[in-house]
Every structure is written in structure tokens, then in C-alpha cells.
Specification:
Length: 784
């Protein structure tokens, strides 16, 4: 029996071929130098395949089942036991199977080696067919069928592109960007609109195809041009004797088109004021070549040619957009491929011809649209569109710099991604119905891609915390013999991600504190650390429950107005207990007796609390009770038990129904939905108000659909959204630094809202003009 080629073998073979058969471009393709364990991940569990083969690049898609560890909690049966010395609940780590989509991009030069590797590692595939699209689907049909033993079923290129485009637009936040060469940030990522239709898709391959997409299944080819990427390639080869597309673009990036093109000022001596034309506008492409008695450089001719073709495509696309009343044009095809000169010239052309009314937009995963669409065509019986999907940052390469002079060895011939992974989420995600305008909602407060000082601080902050997180992860699994080894792998992977983000902050879209936290959680899960803080939460929940009754008794002894202030102060003091904040974790580790009263004494209440709190108090005094309050909880232990639940109890006593929303999965020491069920059950056994509310369904516990320390109100569990509508929710309370400061600080809602948090970071407090442990209490009423 022949030996299976190892992943190391594939890397070596591909590197060898890169040196021989690719015209010297093997070193530029990052996919051939990936670490061995990053190539064809989880291939042994692949179930279904699709492939998109273009003129030079192959994009492979496959669906696999991924087995990973999840943390579960289960309530103990405490009947007849001394519960004082028993844990609150049992923690177990179980195996769970989830679905993942893998996408890999490599040069056609390596297709045979890759097919050999896939063939020898297929174990559990469920299909006898591979969906294929692209021109190469015909060229390589026999090779694919011979190597894989799968029947090639060819799909229409344009249909696959559109299906793929719809899929990424719906499932990936920050998929779309505008290119801005002269700004500090190359990419300006767009907010996901809840309704992606209609739009114009301009696919620039050898020629140009322009498609109007109206719905998921309704689209039409409305125009095109024979002058496209093939024209640039062909004429460029004639003019410069350069036959490789990327070399031609490299030449263009160094050229000056004004040396070759005739400008308006060359004809009229300046601007043409009557027609409002700038003197620097191109009057005639290659116009100077007929009058100047000299040789022109290859670089200048390539740049002139690029401008000529891009301007032609831009004007044509703009005319079609205006004709069909569309203001969004997505550009794709091998002519784009993330190259800066191309994106810049197309953007300029669209802006010029539309007078800024139409926007040229590009996609982070543009190179994978055909493969995604072909996969979706093959998986229609499973209806993948009924699920929500999320990008797995731990297994995705990230968008590379489009600057040809920066990190040239990291520039791939595909321009954007080498690998891309998406995980199927357990529950469908939708917008919070109470968002004032979902199309303009931006979860994150600070864009670190733009803010260089903040970016430097937070990247350093996450780097410095990394050793502690790795140590915590290993300690959370004391019975595992390889926990330390996996923790070190996690540390290395996340460190590498942080270094990538230092150089390319746009790698996964807009860089924010939320994305840094989420990437860390993805990396922890990648190495089977599903809940490093599970034991901490278990212990702190148990300790806080023992204090619950005395806290309630103390509150009940106060007068109404004094009690309202004590409730708010307790809610804020509870929020101090955040293991994700270094200033807090240092205190909690060095001072085990630090508790609820000590946290209250830390708070810097005024002046931030005063004005907004008085408005809130006035609302409680004068206004009718709220019909239903939605509360997004933050941390386990003292936060939810001694801070949130007394607040919930007061609302219930006023006649307000409460929806308490907690994370679906673990993140730091944030309370999860399953933990909240156990905690609430124990509280109900002690408190008749909570018990009655549960029985009468006036207190409802739900999951958010998130496993993040932050909160994206545009991606929430569909069941939560339905409940919010049914109960006519008219108050939203968001607590915690991650949920109310790093995200949602500026979120505009249709109803009243409270945003509460304690600032547990000295740098951030200083930036906001306060001190560490200053409080945020933000009561907002929507404008009528």
C-alpha cells in the first residue's frame, strides 16, 4: 500500500514546482510556504467539494465536520445535602460536532500535487460529485475525475459568482470596502446593510460583464465590454514585452501616465473652464506618443494603459448604475485581485463620472466568490442559507497589504486571501428590532484602523496579557497531559495574529477592541480551550449567591429614592468584577477578600453619574412603568447576582417584564445562558419576587447568539428578536465595558436605553478625561 503524502510533502513539492514551473513566481505565492498544519485543514472529515478554476488560480471549497471541545454546566441535585460546601453546579468538557467551510487558493501550477494529496486523505466524503466552475473546469475536468474519482458537474460562472457574492454580503461583517489610496487607511470598510439588494456586479475578466442583482435568485446580464483584463494583458505584452499579468501591474505601479497621456492642459494650456474640466484630466490616452520624438518607458506605458482601460470600465459601469438607479457597484474578477493601482483608478473613474453619487466597492473575499457559489449549488438540499455563518479568524489568512512596495513577499498573486474559513453558527442571527436605523448602526466605538495611537496601545495591551491568558488556559484543564503544549500553540498563534495586525490592521476588516477579543476567543477554541474561566465563574457564582439575601434585605430597608441610587451603585460595583481587565485581575489574584463593598468604594461616581442619573430618577418618579426591559448581562458572580438581579427585582416590582439576555457561549468570565439558568433557579428559591416572575413568565432568560465579550446588535439570536417584538420592549439596558463602551456607546435605539459600565483601564479613562474606576451611566431617550 503506498504511503500517504504528508502535509510537509505537499509544502515541499509545491515549493519545488514554484521554483521551476511558474516562471519564477513561486516565491510570491504565500500558499506554498504556509506551515504544514495550515494546509487543507480537517481534510479527513471533508464531506463535499467544489472548485473554481480560473486562468491562473484554483479556488477549492470543501465542507467538513469539526470536532471540538465545549464547556457544559449541569445543576447538582442538592436534595438532602449540605449545599454550603457543595459546588453550585457541575462543569464538564464534552466533544461537539460542528460544520465548517474551508476555502483554499493556489496557483494552477500546483493543482495536480494538491489533487493527489486530497485523494490520499479523503476518508468520510459523502459525495460522488464535485461542483466546478470557471474556465478551467473544462480544461482540468479529466484530471479532476481521474485523481479524485468524483464526477465533475460544471456550473455557470456568473450564477456561482452572484451566489457567492450574496453569501458573503449577508454573513461577513466588514466584507465590503472602498479603496482610498491617499488616506491613512487604504481600506474604508462599510457597514453591513440589512438588505443587500439591489446592486451592480461588474466582473472584469478577459472582458467585462455587468450584472444587475435584484434578489437572491433574480439577476440579469445587462451589458459588458470586450475591453477588459485581457485587453490590458494583451496590449501590455505588446507594448512592454511583459507577458505576466502581475509583472505588468508592478510596472504600472511605478509608472507616470502623464509622460505618455495628453492632458487637458497640454491641449488648452490649463483648465478648460467653460466645460469645468481640470487641466490634469486625460484628454487623450497615449496622446503624447504621436508627437514626442522619444522612447517611453515600459512603466509609463503600462500605467497609461491601465488608466485607459479602468476609465473605460468605470464610465461604462457608472452609466449602467445611473440607468438602473443603483448607487452601489461591486467590482470583481482577475483584473482586480486586490491590486492597488487597479482599485485606485476604478475608484477615481467612478467618482469622476458619477460626481460622487455612485460608489466603487470591493470585497475582502472577492477571489472566493465562484468557489463559494459552486459549493452552495452543490449543497442546495442542505439549504445552507437557512443558517448564519461566521468567519473563523483562527483559520483565515487575512487581507494582505495592497501596497506593492510594502511586504512584497507577502503579496500573493491572488491579491487577497490564501485561506478562508467559515463556521456554521448554532442559531440564525438577525438585527435587534429596536435599532433606530440598522443600515447605519456601527457596533464599535473606536476604529483602531484609523486611530494609530489607540491601535498601538491596544495591540501592546493584548500582547502583554497573552502570557497570562495562556497560563490561565493551561490551568483550566489540570487533568489534561497536553494542556501546556496546546496553551503554547495558542499563545504562538495569537501572537502571530497580533503581529500581522500591527503591519496590516485591516486584515479582518475594521480593527477594533472587539475584533481583537474575538480573534483571541477563536484561537483559544482552536486549541480546545472552550472556557478557561469556568472554575473561576463556578466559585464566584457560589460565593455571590451566599450574599444575595443580605444584599436584598439591605436594599429593602432603604427609602425609595435612596434605594434607586443603591441599586445603580450596586450594578456598577458588580461590573468591576471583570477578569478581562488587567487592573481588576491583578487585584482579584492578590486580594482574595476583595468583594462587593470593596468594589463600591473603588467607584469614581461623579461627575459622570450625576446628570444622567437625575434624568433616570425623574423618569422613574414621573413616568409610567416600562412595559418590558431587555437587559444584556455581563459578568458572572457578583456582577449578575448582586448587581443585575437586585435591579431586575426592582423592575419586576414596578410591573415591568424583564428579558435577561446572556451569552450563548463562554468568553472570559462573562455569564453564559446555561449558567444563568442555574443561578436564576437558586435565586428564585430564595426570593419570592423572582420565583413568581419566572412562574408567570414575566422574567424570561434568553441567549444572545454571541460568544464575545462585546455586543453586536446587528447579529443577535433570532429567538431573542422575536421575543423583543412580542413583549413590546421599551427599555434596553446594556452593561459592561465590552458591551457599553467598546461597543454600543453611540448605538441609537428606538426606545429608552441605559448604558452602564466601569472603566477599568487607566489609558482609556485618561483618554475620556476621567480616572480608573470612573463610571458610565448613560440614560438616553429617543427623539420623537
Amino acid at each position: 500500500m503506498p504511503m500517504r503524502p504528508s502535509k510537509e510533502w505537499v509544502a515541499i513539492k509545491m515549493a519545488e514546482r514554484g521554483g521551476r514551473g511558474s516562471g519564477g513566481h513561486g516565491s510570491l505565492d504565500k500558499s506554498i510556504t504556509l506551515p504544514p498544519d495550515e494546509i487543507f485543514r480537517n481534510l479527513e472529515n471533508a464531506k463535499r467539494f467544489a472548485i473554481d478554476i480560473g486562468g491562473s488560480l484554483t479556488k477549492l471549497a470543501y465542507y467538513s465536520t469539526v470536532q471540538h471541545k465545549v464547556a457544559r454546566v449541569r445543576s447538582f441535585d442538592h436534595s438532602g445535602k449540605d449545599i454550603e460546601h457543595e459546588p453550585l453546579y457541575e462543569i464538564s468538557v464534552q466533544e461537539e460536532i460542528t460544520a465548517r467551510l474551508h476555502f483554499i487558493k493556489f496557483e494552477n501550477t500546483y493543482i495536480e500535487t494538491c489533487l493527489d494529496f486530497i485523494k490520499d486523505h479523503l476518508v468520510n466524503t459523502e459525495t460522488k460529485v464535485i461542483k466546478a466552475t470557471g474556465g478551467g473546469a473544462y480544461k482540468f475536468k479529466d484530471l479532476i475525475e481521474k485523481k479524485l474519482g468524483l464526477k465533475v458537474d460544471k456550473e455557470d460562472v456568473m450564477t456561482c459568482l452572484i451566489k457567492g457574492c450574496n453569501f458573503v454580503l449577508k454573513n461577513i461583517p466588514h466584507e465590503v470596502f472602498a479603496y482610498q489610496k491617499d488616506s491613512d487607511t487604504e481600506f474604508r470598510f462599510q457597514t453591513n446593510h440589512p438588505n443587500i439588494f439591489p446592486y451592480l456586479l461588474v466582473n472584469i475578466g478577459s472582458g467585462v460583464s455587468i450584472v444587475k442583482v435584484e434578489t437572491e435568485d433574480k439577476f440579469e446580464w445587462i451589458g459588458g465590454s470586450s475591453i477588459g483584463g485581457g485587453t490590458f494583458w494583451g496590449l501590455g505584452a505588446l507594448l512592454t514585452k511583459t507577458k505576466k499579468f502581475d509583472e505588468l501591474l508592478q510596472l504600472a505601479s511605478k509608472g507616470q501616465h502623464t509622460n505618455v497621456d495628453m492632458l487637458v492642459k497640454d491641449v488648452y494650456g490649463g483648465a478648460y473652464q467653460t466645460l469645468g474640466l481640470s487641466g490634469n484630466l486625460i484628454a487623450s490616452s497615449f496622446g503624447k506618443s504621436t508627437t514626442a520624438d522619444k522612447e517611453f518607458s515600459k512603466e509609463d506605458m503600462a500605467k497609461s494603459l491601465l488608466h485607459m482601460i479602468s476609465n473605460d470600465i468605470g464610465q461604462l459601469a457608472c452609466l449602467y448604475a445611473k440607468l438602473h438607479n443603483l448607487d452601489k457597484i461591486y467590482f470583481g474578477g482577475f483584473f482586480i485581485r486586490g491590486h492597488p493601482v487597479t482599485m485606485r483608478t476604478i475608484t477615481y473613474s467612478i467618482n469622476f463620472f458619477s460626481k460622487g453619487e455612485v460608489q466603487a466597492l470591493f470585497l475582502r473575499h472577492e477571489g472566493y466568490l465562484g468557489a463559494i457559489g459552486a459549493f452552495l449549488k452543490g449543497a442546495e438540499q442542505d439549504n445552507p442559507n437557512q443558517y448564519s455563518w461566521g468567519e473563523n479568524y483562527a483559520g483565515s489568512s487575512g487581507l494582505m497589504s495592497t501596497s506593492p512596495d510594502v511586504f512584497p513577499m507577502q503579496r500573493t498573486r491572488s491579491g487577497t486571501f490564501d485561506m478562508f474559513e467559515m463556521d456554521r453558527l448554532e442559531r440564525p442571527l438577525v438585527n435587534l428590532p429596536l435599532l433606530k436605523d440598522p443600515s447605519t448602526y456601527i457596533p464599535d466605538t473606536v476604529d483602531l484602523t484609523d486611530d494609530a495611537m489607540a491601535r498601538k496601545y491596544w495591540l501592546t495591551c493584548f500582547e502583554e496579557a497573552l502570557d497570562g491568558v495562556a497560563k490561565r488556559a493551561a490551568a483550566s484543564q489540570p487533568d489534561s497531559i497536553d494542556a501546556s503544549e496546546r496553551a503554547e500553540k495558542f499563545r504562538q498563534k495569537y501572537w502571530n495574529k497580533l503581529q500581522t495586525l500591527r503591519q496590516q490592521p485591516f486584515a479582518y476588516g475594521t480593527l477594533t477592541v472587539r475584533s481583537l477579543l474575538d480573534t483571541r476567543e477563536h484561537c483559544l477554541n482552536e486549541f480546545n480551550f472552550p472556557d478557561p474561566y469556568s472554575k473561576v465563574k463556578q466559585k464566584e457564582n457560589g460565593i455571590a449567591l451566599k450574599c444575595f439575601q443580605s444584599v436584598i434585605e439591605s436594599l429593602d430597608s432603604l427609602g425609595w429614592e435612596e434605594r434607586q441610587f443603591a441599586l445603580v451603585k450596586g450594578l456598577l460595583a458588580g461590573n468591576v468584577f471583570d477578569w478581562g481587565a488587567k487592573a481588576v485581575s491583578d487585584v482579584l489574584e492578590s486580594e482574595p477578600q476583595f468583594g462587593f463593598e470593596e468594589a463600591k468604594s473603588k467607584l469614581q461616581e461623579r461627575p459622570w453619574l450625576e446628570d444622567s442619573y437625575s434624568q433616570w430618577l425623574e423618569r422613574l418618579k414621573e413616568g409610567p412603568p416600562h412595559k418590558c426591559a431587555l437587559i444584556f448581562a455581563d459578568n458572572s458572580g457578583i456582577d449578575i447576582i448582586l448587581g443585575v438581579f437586585p435591579f431586575v427585582r426592582e423592575l419586576l416590582s414596578r410591573g415591568t417584564e424583564v428579558i435577561l439576555a446572556c451569552n450563548s457561549g463562554p468568553a472570559l468570565n462573562d455569564v453564559t445562558y446555561s449558567e444563568s439558568l442555574i443561578v436564576t433557579e437558586r435565586i428564585a428559591a430564595m426570593d419570592p419576587v423572582i420565583q413568581s416572575a419566572l412562574r408567570e413568565e414575566k422574567l424570561l432568560l434568553v441567549q444572545t447568539g454571541s460568544s464575545s465579550p462585546c455586543l453586536d446588535l446587528s447579529r443577535l439570536d433570532k429567538g431573542l428578536a422575536v421575543l423583543v417584538r412580542e413583549r413590546e420592549t421599551d427599555l434596553v439596558i446594556i452593561e459592561g465595558m465590552g458591551r457599553a463602551i467598546h461597543t454600543n456607546y453611540y448605538a441609537a435605539l428606538k426606545c429608552e436605553s441605559l448604558k452602564l459600565a466601569v472603566i477599568k483601564n487607566s489609558w482609556l479613562a485618561d483618554r475620556l478625561g476621567g480616572k480608573i474606576f470612573s463610571v458610565i451611566f448613560k440614560y438616553e431617550v429617543p427623539c420623537k
